[in-house]
Specification:
The protein is mainly alpha-helical. It contains eight helices and five strands; from the N terminus they run E-E-E-H-H-H-H-E-E-H-H-H-H. Helix 1 packs across helix 2, helix 3 packs across helix 5 and helix 4 runs parallel beside helix 7.
């Protein structure tokens, strides 16, 4: 029988099982361990791919027991969703922020805002930890393949895509009204073009090693009138 005891520290308490006092994991420690497992999975996925990586592989990479990841995640798919969500937020949140906060951003400004995020060797994930950009983007590209076969991935991906696209379309609509975007431009179609430019660059970077984000942004400024 489990007999609860009073906390002996503000952030941690203990409980008794068969006479032995065991520490109860705190929310902070649990989140830290989840972060470690996600980081280990991201390294494995980047190196070996989603489907060539098993949960025991992730556990070994994280330096924990084979069953430990299941204390924090119900399945490998949940880890994939977590990594994909973090990656797409890091890439597209700057675009959405610019679209929502600027009176009349141009297409090139919107694209450049995402490129700035991935222009360095590392980027901070949503937990504040440094992540290799190449590692993150390799997981992004693999996630697109998952969209074709996994409804659990497709649903959130489609929802996120539409949210960003709608935000960009609204910004371009404001820009057209202000005269910063040509009147002939359809904001909804142009928003899809922005998303296409971003997706295309990310794929080229991962597949072909085209890492010149600054040059890509300069080409957009030189070649586009928007």
């Amino acid at each position: 029988m489990m007999v609860p005891k009073q906390p002996n520290r503000q952030d941690e308490c203990s409980f008794t099982v068969k006479g032995a006092t065991m520490p109860r994991i705190t929310a902070e420690r649990r989140e830290a361990k989840r972060t470690e497992i996600v980081a280990a999975a991201r390294r494995c996925f980047s190196r070996d791919g989603f489907h060539q990586t098993s949960m025991p592989d992730i556990a070994a990479e994280a330096g924990v027991s084979a069953g430990a990841p299941y204390r924090y995640f119900t399945s490998k798919e949940e880890i994939i969703l977590t990594i994909a969500g973090d990656a797409f937020r890091l890439i597209f949140e700057p675009v959405e922020r610019l679209a929502d906060s600027t009176a009349a951003p141009t297409v090139t400004e919107l694209v450049a805002s995402a490129l700035d995020t991935i222009s360095g060797e590392t980027v901070q994930d949503t937990s504040g930890n440094e992540v290799a950009v190449d590692e993150l983007l390799r997981c992004v590209v693999q996630t697109w393949a998952e969209v074709l076969r996994n409804d659990e991935v497709r649903g959130p991906a489609a929802e996120g895509f539409e949210k960003v696209r709608t935000s960009i379309a609204g910004a371009l609509r404001r820009g057209r009204a202000a005269g910063a975007v040509p009147a002939a431009v359809d904001p909804d179609r142009a928003a899809r073009a922005v998303m296409g430019l971003l997706h295309g660059f990310l794929l080229q970077r991962v597949a072909f090693g085209l890492t010149d984000t600054a040059g890509f942004a300069d080409d957009l400024h030189a070649g586009l009138i928007l």
